[in-house]
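Section 3.1 - Work completed
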Amino acid sequence: MRLSREELKSLMKNKMHKAGLSEKHADMAAEVLTWSDERGYHSHGAVRVEYYSERIAKGGMTVDPKFEFKKTGPCSAIFEGDNGCGYVAATLAMEEAIKMAKENGIAVVGVRNISHSGALGYYTEMAADNDLVSISFCQSDPMAVPFGGTEPYYGTNPISFGAPTADDRKVVFDMATTVQAWGKILDKRSRHESIPDSWAVDAKGLPVTDPSLVNALVPIAGAKGYGLMMMVDVFSGVLLGVPFGSHVSSMYHDLSEGRNLGHMHIVMDPSRFTDINEFKKNMSTVLDELNANPAAEGYGKVYYPGERAVMRREEAYANGGIEIVDEIYEYLKSDDIHYDRYDHKNRFAD
């Protein structure tokens, strides 16, 4: 099923609003979800809406949060989320970080006690749109085994960075510190497709291709990915005074309770280090040179981070809209808020 941007966003917004989220917050959340789906990041798009709607309806997301932005120094602040919608809190916190970075050159804004905040690339792109460079971290619940371990301790703990150029291109890099994000497995499950055997392991620690048999994810590049997982958890968990590591709340354990997650934005103004126009020009040169790099056999081109996502967006609209799984579309257009499928499930919604 292919939908226009407006139709998809409206369906997602209306579903979350019907579940109890304010119209404004539902609109902001739907915007980030649409941004993800149109770029082919379906793991962080419409596939998540039923889960959010169930959590909202059951009281596990504050629908009228008392957000508070508290400066802790000229370049630092805490955004208190009151377990409100993570998309909204992370967006508003990035807006404040952008203002602070423009005023003081750098901003470090911790966002704490929020619900899931989705694709981090949306927020770093916000900074790039304002001629700023940024990096964002967000913790998640235990899904991945530490290097050499057998029991999950850290989450997928994603990292994103963004940067502007002298033209309309932007660098937007967004990655999980696991070989794949759990959302990618969720997307494959919704499509009744198998997964590569390098993504996850079963209960015995053996590689698995059936997404319904996943017991734990694995870190990228072994010990290196494990170290990055720890870094993300320190910046967005331990440093912000919220639950960390194995103490991070489960996405599905009890949908009537808030998740108290942490998120960190670090934003910098390039003009405090070099001439901004020269910086942007050099960034464009970097992208041009990467694109011109001879491609290895089996690769048609060398792409810069974020380029293929923009290509997927353009291709989607050229082909009639954003592609959505039929089952998800049927849910979005239905009168049902949710089907009670996620509450009190394990970390993989089983």
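Second construct:
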Amino acid sequence: MKKNVLASLVLATTLTLGALTGCGDAAPAETTQTTETTEAASEAQAEAPATADSGDKKITVGATPVPHAEILDNIVKEVLAEDGWELETVVFSDYVLPNTSLEQGELDANYFQTLGYMNQQNQDAGLHLTAVAGIHIEPMGIYSQKYKALSELPDGATIGIPNDPDNGARGLDLLVQKGLLVSKGDFGTDPSYTEDTLSKDKDANPHGYVITPLEAANLPLSLPDLDAATINGNYALEAGLPAEYPALDIETFDDETTVKRTNFLVVKEGNESSEKTQALIKALQSDKVQKYIDDTYKGAVITSFIDAQ
């Protein structure tokens, strides 16, 4: 169901400005671009296609590799072709160039970021970008290679969480949300209340789970040594976890966190109603894209079709 978020777009400036993207809220993992991708980016920059409609049927979209470029190349291109559009996906390995390239008119749109990150970039870099449609969320999930249900986790099980403050808190919130913890105790508010304290806090942690903070990107690699772990969607996808070890459970969202975690299609101000933008919105929010996301990512990516106009 689409939600109108005009008010949320204004509210978004008060959200945590460091929140990002399709890649959860963690800093981007290093991604090596192929020669073909690098050449495509260079060609896009050299040709600098105009963002305004000029009668051509080619749409150039910047995206990060997983899952954004996959969604564009594997299904959106097909849906656009049904209406006579040609899609070129330019893959970026960082979160800065897709926005500066869009600002400079080298792209028609980009698809990789949350409102919080876009607002931060507009403010910090003097950009003029606007979100036009919400597409998906990459929820954090609880994964395990040893157990197939949360109810199977034994007392004293070792559970990994990300070690950075934002995603660590998100991981603990997920454990509370799913009933594994009763609360976080004073974790994150009292410096003396550590993960070791939480592990021994019978009120907050009645099952005595051993909470183990690790680098977010390394949690999939550490999963064989853990009983379970809370893992960001992008890292789970890169490790192939949803296909081999589907999440035991994933985050649920209220209205505010839905908007905060959604990855949006973004264009330069003034192009919100252009023919190309409207074609992209229609394709990205189509039933075929929803089915592709559901079938391909098995809960590691969920659709969040929000009307931002």
